[in-house]
């Protein structure tokens, strides 16, 4: 006998007869949702990353203190990657009798590769997107340079040895450094003209950049290739390394999207598990009959496996195609949220959708199929004879194996996947235990009740296996959905909280000590709240543990830069509210006189400063020594005033300092700023509104993406609901027919069905609220770095929601049973 | 020597005993059964409900294992075979008809009849199945599902399925018990006419005296023992 051919023939018949309809549709929808969430998250994640890469003006940026080796450009050309070069260096402009420090940036054709530059053609014109870079002989500049040099558009200025015409005002530059203390205004020229200025002498402090853009895989390849070259003094940066304040938002967003995809998979698994169990259960007769007619146990198993695999392939294929369609629709709906174009889909979600479908099917139905082989052929005479129940361990092992493979693979983050798997396993155990208890508790209860209650409770306790399967299925499904909902709310709250509307948009620096009180009073008078004025001392790091600090000690350009640059150091009795001490301790009231420093963790890593190291700074000509007493993290995206290095008041209090403050300045109070600058001419005011808008936009887009993906997984939950309710369909049909022949009224049966399902759903809701709270607690701490709060109102809503959803859906699904004559139902069983 | 004798006897049982252990104690179903069936013979086994008729049929067909004693099917002792070995022995040579029809609900009448032929890997399964159904007077119902057929029609499909592979032995367990008298009669007519045409051994279990009379031999199962005649 050719078991394979035979199985395929059976599959064709099942298909036509509708035997496989439920399983097939669960699988199709499941695969479709996994695929479309996969596609969607993949594309949205890349769009988010692309939006974020605007702050680099590229996907990848290579930076060096020396001219970049040509091989880097040659490789970009070989890979047909769009690229642009920029140079940046400080210079001084001499115009008539004024001198002004400027930060020159030379840009090549194509800049910026990501995001856009905005310019104005006249002082009071509207700003617009700059579609080109400055033409040869032209400079573009920041508006504040005009009064400083006392020039206007159309005038000529000299940069080095070459004259340029002042052509446009730059209003927005995507990759403008996030360094607030870069005070020198921008002057932009085309790279072609820079040679003629004669400013690129060997001693000049020029930074060379190569900007690259392209698909992530190519970027990764290029990055690896470039890093392998190991060219000294060259740093390869992407958005994550370049702008740490955006990194956490991006990472969280990415993790959420992957959690959403995993949720869709889990929902689909439970739905497939429920419906494949039902399919297999209905196959006991055919297994017995085939054995009776002479097939061996192995052949029977073979026949069913081929049949199910065939189904898996076909359904998964339909599923991925449907998924492709749905995601196209989704992207059409949300694509316009992103300023950049949404990247094209990759083929990967198609493949992963297929694999997911088949893996889920095998993982959850293989044990039941093996059991089919054990149906005794004698069943043809004795209907009640069936295969011994599947070993729970075998079932769990197969399910767990496929679940783990899928989750670890799809989430791509072991820590998160393992926590999720652990939580779900615990959840499974709890749900099974509760369903056992439920059956015991209900049995006596049903004798105390009457009418609909009695039938409803009876139905639950009479079929313990089905009850526990439904409770577990609904419970696990609700758990993952709730979990996703909790993480979603926390994530959005944290993103919104990261930059509240009144977060500081103005910095005042260079406030002289004798002006502090007056500035404070003036701001208070104007109704402006600051977080205080902080002393700021300029100092250069001279040695770490007695070893002199020099740029030659470091390979990495950022470290080199930091090593040679003046630091802004402060002294304080308390750390800023957004700082977290990660090692060591902050000083107490009695330790204020100690010679101690507190160093920001990232800086400590870059420069190689361990806790307890002895640091020596040169401050205004004298040396200050102290020990690193603690390391702390800083939320740079809070836009609060923060310092890399803070000393005790005892160590630094007597050093010459200027003061700095930040605050939120509403639009209508801008006049206050003018008054302030007029009264205290030495103070510099810095407006960071544009920078904040940039960060906010990225987070807002992320939030929208999160919302839409969440809605989509909700749809996957509906499939589960359907499969769960179908799990008891045969039993219900039988019971209803018997009860109706016995003369029980339809209305009583309808109500009892409602009660039965509502009880199941409510219980599943309540248990899953507890489970989801526990898992989200673990994820919030270890994976998302989000605050976590116990929300008991959520438990109540889950109970209500579960009862309503399952109750109504279950009743609707059973309604047809009540409307068809009992005889017809009986014949179909 | 044994070979030749069993070749003449497709089904033999000697000293067959069957009991089951339950939580309520041991139930002795068959005490000591000796039976020899000759080629082409139709044997009826009669007995009250619960007397062990179905149990005996299951043992003879190799669907169940005896507690002691021996069953030989086509000369091979079933005690020496495992379940798969017994299944292989049945393949293509044994047919069944049951009281509760055992048609697969997901297949049409034609497909149900094709099932044993396909399982045996026979070519032309569809033509053979169509012929069998036509012989059963169901040429108009080929593509109907069991739920669309009456009880008598379903049982006729079951007969067509049993005879289509041209089995050497047919086991029938109360094939007419679920049918009204008239329909039972038609099904019985069909059963015996097919049996005569194909010269198949028929082992028929029933408690219907009328049906049993149409067989070559009648045996009564009482208190776990087979007795001849009335
Ligand atoms: N596995 C078993 N466990 C317990 N009792 C069994 C088992 N198999 C058979 N019996 C008992 O053995 C007796 C004979 O059963 P069997 O089905 O062979 O009777 P039968 O003659 O076919 O009856 P009917 O005419 O009602 O079909 C019955 O009393 C039955 O309860
Ligand atoms: Mg019987």
Description:
The complex is a heterodimer of chains A (829) and B (230). By secondary structure, chain A is of the alpha+beta class. Chain A folds into three domains: 3-50 and 247-497 and 696-828, no CATH class; 57-237, no CATH class; 530-663, no CATH class. Chain A is built from 25 helices and 22 strands. In chain A, the strands form two sheets. In chain A, strands 1, 2, 3, 4, 5, 6, 7, 8, 9, 10 and 11 form an eleven-stranded mixed β-sheet that branches. A six-stranded mixed barrel of chain A has the order 13-15-20-17-19-18. The mean pLDDT of chain A is 81. In chain B, the strands form two sheets. Chain B has a six-stranded mixed β-sheet with strand order 6-7-8-3-9-10. Chain B has a four-stranded antiparallel β-sheet with strand order 2-1-4-5, covered by helices on one side. With 230 residues, chain B is of the alpha/beta class. Chain B has eight helices and ten strands. The longest helix of chain B is centred in the last third of the chain and has 18 residues, at 181-198. Mean pLDDT of chain B is 87; it is low at 1-6. The A-B interface holds A 1-2, 6, 9, 13-14, 17-19, 285-286, 289-298, 376-378, 380-383, 827-828 and B 54-55, 57-58, 61, 63-64, 83-84, 87-94, 96, 98, 100, 102, 104-108, 111, 115-116, 118-121, 145, 147, 173. The structure holds adenosine-5'-triphosphate and magnesium ion. Magnesium ion binds at residues 53-54, 173 of chain B.
């Amino acid at each position: 006998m050719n078991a394979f051919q035979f199985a395929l023939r059976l599959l064709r018949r099942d298909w036509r007869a509708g035997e496989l309809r439920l399983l097939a549709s669960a699988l199709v929808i499941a695969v479709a949702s996994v695929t479309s969430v996969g596609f969607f998250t993949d594309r949205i994640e890349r769009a988010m990353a692309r939006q974020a890469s605007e702050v680099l003006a590229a996907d990848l940026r290579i930076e060096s203190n020396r001219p970049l080796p040509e091989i880097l450009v040659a490789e970009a050309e070989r890979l047909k990657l769009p690229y642009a070069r920029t140079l940046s260096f400080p210079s001084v402009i001499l115009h008539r009798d004024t001198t002004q420090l400027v930060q020159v940036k030379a840009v090549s054709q194509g800049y910026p590769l990501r995001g856009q530059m905005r310019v104005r053609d006249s002082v009071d014109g509207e700003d617009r997107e700059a579609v080109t870079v400055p033409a040869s002989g032209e400079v573009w500049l920041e508006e504040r340079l005009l009064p400083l040099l006392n020039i206007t558009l159309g005038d000529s200025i000299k940069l080095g040895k070459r004259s340029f015409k002042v052509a446009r005002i730059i209003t927005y530059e995507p990759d403008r450094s996030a360094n607030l203390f870069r005070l020198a205004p921008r002057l932009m020229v085309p790279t072609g003209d820079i040679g003629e200025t004669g400013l690129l002498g060997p001693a000049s402090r020029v930074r060379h950049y190569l900007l690259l853009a392209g698909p992530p895989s190519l970027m990764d390849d290029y990055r690896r290739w470039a890093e392998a070259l190991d060219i000294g003094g060259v740093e390869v940066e992407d958005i994550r390394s370049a702008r740490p304040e955006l990194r956490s938002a991006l990472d969280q967003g990415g993790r959420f999207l992957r959690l959403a995809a995993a949720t869709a998979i889990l929902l689909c698994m439970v739905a497939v598990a429920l419906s494949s169990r039902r399919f297999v259960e209905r196959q006991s007769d055919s297994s017995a009959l085939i054995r009776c007619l002479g097939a061996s146990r192995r052949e029977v198993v073979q026949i069913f496996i081929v049949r199910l695999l065939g189904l898996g392939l076909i359904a998964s294929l339909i599923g991925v195609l449907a998924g492709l369609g749905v995601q196209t629709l989704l992207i059409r709906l949300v694509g316009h949220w992103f300023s950049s174009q949404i990247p094209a889909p990759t083929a990967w979600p198609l493949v992963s959708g297929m694999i997911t479908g088949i893996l889920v099917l095998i993982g959850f139905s293989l044990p039941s199929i093996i059991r089919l082989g054990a149906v005794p052929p004698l069943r043809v005479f004795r209907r009640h004879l069936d295969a011994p129940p599947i070993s729970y361990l075998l079932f769990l092992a197969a399910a767990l194996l496929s679940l783990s493979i899928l989750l670890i693979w799809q989430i791509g983050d072991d820590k998160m996947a393992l926590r999720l798997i652990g939580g779900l396993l615990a959840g499974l155990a709890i749900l099974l235990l509760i369903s056992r208890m439920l059956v015991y508790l209900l049995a006596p209860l049903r004798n105390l009740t009457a009418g609909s209650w009695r039938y409803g409770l009876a139905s639950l306790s009479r079929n313990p296996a089905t009850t526990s399967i439904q409770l577990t299925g609904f419970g696990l499904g609700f758990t993952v959905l709730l979990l996703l909902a909790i993480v979603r709310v926390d994530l959005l709250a944290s993103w919104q909280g990261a930059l509240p509307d009144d977060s500081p948009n103005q910095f005042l620096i260079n406030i002289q000590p004798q002006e502090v009180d007056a500035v404070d009073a003036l701001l208070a008078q104007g109704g402006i709240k600051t977080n205080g004025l902080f002393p700021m001392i300029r100092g250069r790091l001279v040695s770490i543990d007695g070893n002199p600090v020099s740029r030659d000690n470091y390979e990495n350009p950022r470290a080199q830069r930091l090593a040679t640059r003046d630091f802004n150091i402060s002294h304080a009795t308390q750390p800023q509210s957004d700082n977290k001490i990660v090692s060591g301790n902050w000083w107490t009231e009695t330790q204020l006189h100690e010679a101690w420093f507190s160093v920001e963790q990232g800086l400590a890593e870059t420069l190689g400063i361990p806790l307890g190291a002895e640091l020596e700074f040169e401050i205004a000509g004298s040396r200050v020594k102290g020990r690193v007493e603690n390391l702390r993290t800083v939320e740079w995206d809070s836009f609060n005033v923060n310092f890399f290095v803070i000393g005790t008041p005892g160590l630094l209090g007597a050093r010459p300092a200027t003061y700095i403050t930040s605050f939120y300045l509403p639009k209508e109070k801008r006049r206050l700023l003018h008054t302030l600058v007029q009264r205290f001419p030495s103070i510099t005011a810095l407006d960071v509104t544009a920078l904040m808008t940039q960060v906010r936009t990225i987070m807002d887009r992320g939030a929208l993406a999160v919302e839409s993906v969440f809605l989509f997984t909700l749809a996957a939950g509906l499939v589960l609901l359907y499969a769960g309710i179908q799990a008891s369909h045969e039993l219900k049909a039988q019971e209803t027919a018997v009860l109706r022949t016995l003369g029980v009224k339809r209305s009583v049966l309808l109500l009892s069905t409602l009660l039965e399902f509502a009880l199941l759903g409510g219980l599943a809701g309540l248990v899953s609220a507890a489970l989801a709270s526990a898992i989200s607690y673990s994820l919030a701490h270890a994976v998302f770095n989000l605050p976590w709060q116990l929300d008991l109102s959520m438990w109540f809503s889950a109970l209500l929601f579960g009862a309503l959803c399952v109750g109504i859906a279950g009743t609707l699904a059973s309604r047809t049973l009540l409307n068809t004559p009992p005889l017809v139902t009986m014949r179909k069983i | 020597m044994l070979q030749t004798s069993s070749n003449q006897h497709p089904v033999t049982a000697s000293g067959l005993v069957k009991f089951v252990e339950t939580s309520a104690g041991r139930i002795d179903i068959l005490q000591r059964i000796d039976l020899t069936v000759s080629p082409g013979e139709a044997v009826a086994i009669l007995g009250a409900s619960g007397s062990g008729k179905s149990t005996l049929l299951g043992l003879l067909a190799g669907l169940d294992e005896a507690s002691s004693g021996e069953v030989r099917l086509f000369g091979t002792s079933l005690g020496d075979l495992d379940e798969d070995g017994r299944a292989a022995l049945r393949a293509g040579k044994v047919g069944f008809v049951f009281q509760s029809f055992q048609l697969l609900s997901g297949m049409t009448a034609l497909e149900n009849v094709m099932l044993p032929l396909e399982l045996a890997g026979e070519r032309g399964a569809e033509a053979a199945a169509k012929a069998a159904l036509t012989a059963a007077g169901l040429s108009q119902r080929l593509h109907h599902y069991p739920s669309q057929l009456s009880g008598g029609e379903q049982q006729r499909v079951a007969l067509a399925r049993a005879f289509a592979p041209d089995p050497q032995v047919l086991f029938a367990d109360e094939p007419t018990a679920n049918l009204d008298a008239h329909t039972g009669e038609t099904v019985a007519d069909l059963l015996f006419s097919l049996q005569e045409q194909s010269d198949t051994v028929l082992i028929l279990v029933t408690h219907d005296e009328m049906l049993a009379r149409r067989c070559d031999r009648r045996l009564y199962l009482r208190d776990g023992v087979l007795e001849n005649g009335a």
